[in-house]
Amino acid sequence: MTVWLRPPRRVALLSVHTSPLEQPGTGDAGGMNVYIAQTATRMAERGIAVEVFTRATSSDLPPVAELAPGVLVRHVPAGPFEPLDRTELPAQLCAFTAVVLQTEANNEAGFYDLVHSHYWLSGQVGWLARDRWGVPLVHTAHTLARVKNAALADGDTPEPRSREIGEQQVVDQADQLVANTDMEANDLLHRYDADPAKVCTVSPGVDLARFQPGSRTDARARLGVPASATVFAFVGRIQPLKGPDVLLRAAAEVLRRGDVNRSDLVVLVVGGPSGTGLEQPRALQELAAHLGISDVVRFLPPQAGPELAQVYLAADVVTVPSHNESFGLVALEAQACGTPVVATDVGGLRVAVRDGVTGLLVPGHSADMWADALTRLNSPELRAVLGAGAVSHARAFSWDRTTDELVGAYMRAGVAFREVSEQAEVAS
Ligand code: UDP
């Protein structure tokens, strides 16, 4: 057996449907964008040149942009220069792949010695690139259709069968599959019949320099939130899957019970419409009006990292009421700031939040249960204990660790790829 003892020198990183240069928190830009930007930057710091391929959504985008030293983003023309719904993207994969292959053929900087695809659409491109270039394919799914379809929110449409089929093909083809949690690894094994030798778990990280404890008073002053208010926050892409409606219903219930005075409550909702949420971009505002709480809810557009940290610091509690979550970076970021998190007891949130230690996990989405959890956290003493637990829990995660473990996965992929190639040679 030939063992690949060194990390790759140049990696092609595929992110067809969303660019790491985009502001996360709206549309298709979310945790995956953060993951790619953070790990690619650190790969480059470790001497691995990274080129990210993403679809060009505007003719104003330069063909190539620098994300960080050693990390290029290549804007691939594939289809019209405009954002496309994810369901339209499979028809553009051939055009996308053609440009990726041409780029490599004309690239003076040399060959890629590994391809890492993010999300199944990129996996389809990576599969062909791997075969053409004769290099290993590492794949990170980020979400899985079969898992998502098993936990749909009201108003969400199921992922199509074509995605399940495409995803299965990528699982079968990849030399290494990187899961965010052991649960996701289990899903790959049992829902997609993945080869256990190819599956590994690599925890996502958190930017501990950006998200750290700080002054709540200052954060509230910056956001114009009264120092004495009770503040619940939701941060993320606004769509049924993320359950922001759960927070609004729970806040209305907290007020109905008189657990918090109306004049003391502020609910911050940060992010922009995404996915099926784009079909009714004002649905949450309408729900707030329907619940009679428009006066306590403040909607903020997607915030960049430093401003987002102020939101986490200003909040008494950050809520993550998702119906399904592969991991939940928002939960980790809030905890790194010392803010306890109330999250649904589902998927990766069970790893991101430690029930009773760093926050609370709620089994389901009923307004009653969520109001109970929020009211429990009305106690400053409990918030202080959970907040301290949250900081130490979050500090166990870092993008440096994620990157080191990814490099390990790359090296294992090299071994697996060689083995398969050698077997093929012997067989011929
Ligand atoms: N985010 C942001 N600004 C916002 C809202 C979200 O930068 O206004 C970022 C947030 O910091 C987090 C990511 O978007 O890193 C969301 O990741 P998460 O895993 O919570 O959810 P996903 O978007 O992957 O479903």
Automatic annotation (TrEMBL):
Binding site for Mg(2+): Y312, A315, T339
Official protein name in the record: D-inositol-3-phosphate glycosyltransferase
Function: Catalyzes the transfer of a N-acetyl-glucosamine moiety to 1D-myo-inositol 3-phosphate to produce 1D-myo-inositol 2-acetamido-2-deoxy-glucopyranoside 3-phosphate in the mycothiol biosynthesis pathway.
Enzyme class: transferase
Positions contributing to 1D-myo-inositol 3-phosphate binding: H17, D28, A29, G30, G31, M32, N33, R86, Y119, T143, R163
Pfam families: Glyco_trans_4_4, Glycos_transf_1
Organism lineage: Bacteria, Bacillati, Actinomycetota, Actinomycetes, Pseudonocardiales
GO terms of biological process kind: mycothiol biosynthetic process
Coiled coil (residue ranges): none
Alphabetic keyword roster: Glycosyltransferase, Magnesium, Metal-binding, Transferase
A GO MF label: acetylglucosaminyltransferase activity
Superkingdom of this protein's organism: Bacteria
Binding site for UDP-N-acetyl-alpha-D-glucosamine: Q23, P24, G31, R237, K242, Q303, E325, E333
